[in-house]
Write a structure and sequence with these properties.
With 179 residues, this protein is mainly alpha-helical. The protein has helices at 2-13, 18-27, 37-49, 73-84, 95-106, 111-136, 144-175; strands at residues 16-17, 53-55, 68-71.
């Protein structure tokens, strides 16, 4: 149910075409809620049929021009309802953790290399988030909207910090000689 809400959020921030939404998902919302090009277009169609969004009128129609969508009052109301609703945390489901548990039973062949690969990926993502923070959240940006966007980014930074530290400790633990 959250993809339509992610799309409504993005469209309220800036009316966009499906292609623009896909690009924006790749650069912002996609860091914490990913969607494929096809999923976004499918949801745009559903949201339009439900009366939550509409395609903007074009002054001059040109062939191949992308539809740009905006949120209607019903879409804004749905997003406000969803934002205010209570939701329980989702249980953690991570394949790497399950694979480590399985390695305890069948052996650790190949697992260390993949842990190192994960560590590299998490370090890279952490560096990217920290760069975004420096660029987009300089001191003095104190509007509530900016603070909310910043706390979402901080969640990403904190999660990547957790994963890098956890992976470093896990690799140390795997490298320890058996007692």
């Amino acid at each position: 149910m959250s993809l339509p809400h992610a799309i409504l959020t993005a469209l309220l921030e800036k009316p966009s075409s499906g292609l623009e939404l896909t690009r924006r998902f790749d650069k912002s919302i996609g860091y914490f809620w990913s969607a494929t090009h096809q999923q976004i277009y499918r949801e745009l169609g559903k949201l339009e049929r439900e009366g939550a969004i509409r395609a903007l009128e074009r002054q001059q129609a040109t062939r191949g021009q992308k539809k740009e969508y905006e949120v209607l009052p019903a879409g804004r109301a749905e997003l406000a309802r969803w934002t205010a609703a209570s939701q329980d945390p989702k249980p953690l489901r991570d394949t790497l953790l399950l694979r480590l548990r399985a390695a305890a039973v069948v052996g650790t062949d190949g697992i260390e290399a993949d842990l190192r690969r994960h560590l590299t990926l998490h370090r890279r993502q952490l560096a990217e988030y920290e760069e975004i923070e420096k660029r987009d959240f300089p001191p003095g940006r104190d509007a509530v909207e900016d603070r909310l966007r910043h706390v979402v980014l901080r969640a990403g930074i904190d999660l990547e910090t957790f994963w890098t530290q956890w992976l470093e400790r896990t690799l140390e633990e795997l490298g320890r000689p058996d007692a």
